[in-house]
Design a protein that fits this description.
The complex is a heterodimer of chains A (about 475) and B (about 240).
Chain A: H1 8-16, H2 19-41, H3 46-62, H4 64-77, E1 81-85, H5 88-101, E2 106-109, H6 113-117, H7 120-126, E3 130-133, H8 136-143, H9 160-170, H10 183-200, E4 203-206, E5 210-212, E6 217-222, H11 226-232, E7 236-242, E8 246-247, H12 250-264, E9 272-276, E10 290-296, H13 300-303, H14 319-322, H15 325-330, H16 341-352, H17 369-373, H18 380-393, H19 399-412, H20 415-432, E11 438-439, H21 446-449, E12 454-455, H22 462-476
Parallel strand pairs in A: 1-10, 2-3, 2-4, 4-7, 5-8, 7-10
Antiparallel strand pairs in A: 5-6, 6-9, 11-12
Helix pairs in contact in A: 3-12, 9-10, 16-18
Chain B: H1 5-25, H2 35-42, H3 56-69, E1 73-78, H4 83-93, E2 99-102, H5 106-109, E3 120-123, E4 132-136, E5 139-141, E6 146-150, H6 158-161, E7 165-171, E8 175-176, H7 179-193, E9 203-207, E10 212-213, E11 221-222, E12 229-236
Parallel strand pairs in B: 1-12, 2-3, 2-4, 4-7, 5-8, 7-12
Antiparallel strand pairs in B: 5-6, 6-9, 10-11
Classes of the chains: A alpha/beta (about 475), B alpha/beta (about 240).
């Protein structure tokens, strides 16, 4: 998909002014985090599982070449085909070639972030093949010609009435005055619209949550059952997965599944977890005749061996989005590409370069909530800082900001000077603000104080207060 | 697909290219030679949560509790003869047609369906018109109330997903605490019957409750694309 990441600031401003979006995001930030906490409470081993999940992926990344080769052999042994694709162009062409070889007219799809990354829908359409999204959220945004705004809940930015309008516009063959006031009515309509399409499709295109080396299986996790119909009914099943989805064994996949749904939706386990291995067997009554797996690089190998390698542990649960104060304020579209939130702000510059994406690593308060909820313990704040450092080294950003950062570096690395200067500043601010107890505006902090008051400092700097407390404790406590 | 010569060439190039990029990037990080293969063969078990390490009876109870928590319904009966009356009761209670599509599994075939004269049964993979299906689960997992279905001539995958009502039959002896026990059992069973390369059947499907979506304003609705009703029938006594 075409990136609008360079317009982040404008996108964010627009999002902040959108009341419908704010309602939708409020609903999200109440729902997922609370459900996640409930699931945590029922799983005392959760922290141990996170450690193991992290270690599994670290081991895989350190041996990725061996694992990929073995995965390829296992898939091939069982009658599947593996296609290696360096970038989006190669992946799109490979999919189109498979469709052409099998005379495919329509392709049903189950939700795939890689599919979004390589913009496969537009490409297939341009080439006369009809792609049909089958996940309810993806189906809605496909009709609206919008990108997903959340990695696991693509239509989270929409309210029910907007979905109803979309269905009225697109399902023109249905009775115009039918009632679509209930979510149930919307779901039933989508279900019946899509039912025949599942049967008619020639190719089923899915992503993969994991690739299991031991068995050459691809793992799919859904709640709706659309992925299962997509990979069972058509003649051809194509899986598109990025290289880092590898896990060694079924046991390793199981450990990661234990943290995935709990972190994502707060479910103990998603409704459907499917392990697909090769095409239909000799006596099978259903299943595809052909089974293809695309292994896509698209920038991943550039992150290996760098300070961003740990980002490749990500299992796309969306927990960092659900807990991010910036994501919860602006939503996913503002980020301007397929991914969003903290994982997007780290991953997008890595995949499409810093040039167009310089604002994304800055779109964070570095509060650390993302890292604290990440099931794979990815140090997202450290990586956001690493991108910021690279931007500084590349001399990107305004002169004022760069000057400010340099001045700050000078001050922060000289404790004596820092104490003196902050002492003076605090004393001055305390004196100036003594009558109101707060400032309406301050020089150099214009945009910060535009929306709120800055409380006037009371009682000296932190270091001074700390020193006083220590002296006080020494004077009153007797130590043995 | 049979790719022509030129395509094959570019594919090999992409493969070599990607692998060499990886090798350059992670040089020095890898484990000792042989570690990867040893790890793949060991099937080492990671942490199994306490709630998945229960004894037989506790496992059965936990399975029922967890399955009901995710909106499945569960009936526990004794003997294959008790299956048809239970299925008819469920269909009648829910005002559903007394028509079933059965899995061609011998354990389903021995069930005396004909005793229920109002019941109309047929056997095979699911079709779009089927309203209810019966298939036999390979195993069940107490930890999350999950039933494990294994594809094959005996239990076509479509039976699990197409009809709006799904009856999953499970023998009480096949209820385990954790997923890991199910993997162990699957490996053991496949080693006996399958070709050496067929470690896995085409599809292994974990099913935890009926189909659902929360894509419209986070409202949870059952029956998105898969079944709206999942009724699990636990059969006690002699294995059917």
């Amino acid at each position: 998909m075409e990136a609008t990441t360079f317009r982040f600031k404008a996108n964010a401003r627009q999002a902040l002014a959108n009341d419908t979006l704010r309602d939708a995001l409020a609903l999200l930030s109440k729902g997922f985090p609370a459900k996640r906490l409930q699931a945590m409470a029922r799983m005392p081993e959760f922290e141990a599982l996170r450690d193991e999940a992290r270690d599994i992926k670290n081991h895989v990344l350190a041996n990725l070449d061996h694992y990929l080769e073995r995965f390829e052999s296992r898939v091939t042994e069982q009658g599947g085909h593996v296609h290696w694709c360096r970038d989006a162009t190669e992946a799109r062409q490979t999919i189109l070639d498979i469709c052409r070889h099998t005379d495919a007219k329509t392709v049903t799809k189950s939700k795939s972030m890689i599919g979004e990354e390589i913009a496969i829908n537009d490409f297939l359409e341009e080439n006369g093949i009809t792609p049909i999204e089958t996940d309810l959220g993806e189906y809605i945004i496909q009709l609206r010609q919008e990108p997903p705004s959340h990695i696991i809940a693509p239509a989270i930015h929409l309210k029910q009435h907007q979905v109803a309008e979309t269905f009225r516009d697109n399902h023109a063959e249905l009775h115009a005055d039918r009632s679509l006031d209930e979510p149930r009515a919307l779901l039933d309509e989508a279900r019946s619209e899509l039912r025949q399409k599942f049967f008619d499709a020639d190719v089923g295109l899915t992503g993969a949550n994991m690739l299991v080396v031991e068995t050459g299986s691809t793992v799919l996790v859904t709640n709706e059952g659309n992925a299962e119909l997509t990979c069972t009914l058509p003649r051809v099943h194509i899986v598109i997965a990025s290289l880092e989805k590898i896990v060694p064994t079924l046991e390793d996949a199981t450990t990661i599944l234990r943290v995935l749904a709990r972190s994502a939706t707060g479910q103990e386990m998603s409704v459907y977890t499917s392990f697909c291995t090769g095409p239909k067997r000799a006596n099978d009554l259903d299943g595809p005749d052909q089974y293809h797996v695309l292994l896509l690089d698209n920038g991943r190998t550039q992150l290996l061996g760098t300070e961003f390698q740990e980002m490749l542990r990500c299992i796309r649960c969306g927990a960092c989005l659900n807990h991010c104060p910036v994501y919860k304020a602006v939503g996913g579209h503002a980020y301007g590409w397929v991914y969003s939130g903290p994982m997007g702000a780290v991953l997008i510059p890595g995949l499409i370069g810093l040039d167009q994406t310089a604002d994304l690593p800055k779109a964070s308060t570095l509060c650390g909530h993302c890292e604290s909820v990440c099931p794979m313990r990815i140090p997202l704040p450290r990586m956001l800082r690493a991108w910021r450092r690279q931007l500084f080294d590349l001399r990107r950003g305004s002169k004022t900001v760069r000057f400010g950062l340099r001045a700050w570096t000078m001050l922060a690395t000289r404790p004596g000077l820092y104490r003196v200067l902050t002492g003076i500043t605090v004393a001055m601010l305390a004196w100036l603000g003594r009558s109101r107890g707060a400032f309406r505006s301050l020089p150099l902090a214009g945009s910060w104080s535009k929306a709120r008051d800055l409380p006037a400092p009371e009682g000296g700097t932190f270091v001074a207060q700390w020193q006083r407390k220590k002296d006080h404790d020494h004077g009153t406590r007797r130590y043995p | 697909m049979s790719p022509n010569g030129s395509e094959k060439k570019t594919m090999i190039t992409a493969r070599e290219d990607i692998l060499s990029r990886i090798r350059n990037a992670i040089a020095g990080q890898g484990s000792a030679t042989g570690t990867v293969d040893k790890r793949l063969q060991a099937h080492a078990v990671n942490t199994i949560p306490a709630r998945g390490r229960c004894d037989r009876n506790a496992c059965i109870d936990a399975f029922v509790t967890e399955a009901e928590k995710v909106n499945a319904t569960v009936a526990r009966i004794t003997g294959a003869d008790a299956v048809p009356p239970e299925v008819v009761r469920y269909l009648t209670d829910n005002n559903l047609p007394l028509v079933l599509r059965l899995a061609p599994d011998p354990r389903v075939a021995v069930i005396p369906w004909a005793q229920q004269t109002l019941l109309e049964v047929s056997t095979g993979a699911a079709r779009s018109s089927d309203t209810a299906s019966v298939s036999h689960a390979f195993a069940a997992v107490a930890e999350t109330g999950t039933v494990v279905m294994v594809s094959g001539a005996e239990n076509p995958t479509t039976l699990n997903y197409l009809p709006p009502t799904h009856f999953a039959i499970i023998a009480v002896a096949d209820i385990f605490g954790s997923y890991e026990e199910v993997w162990r059992r699957l490996r053991a069973q496949r080693a006996e019957v399958a070709e050496p390369c067929d470690v896995m059947p085409r599809a292994v499907n974990w099913i935890t409750g009926p189909s659902r979506t929360a894509d419209i304003e986070q409202t949870i609705l059952l029956g998105a694309h898969g079944p709206q009703r999942l009724h699990i029938v636990i059969v006690d006594g002699k294995k059917i």
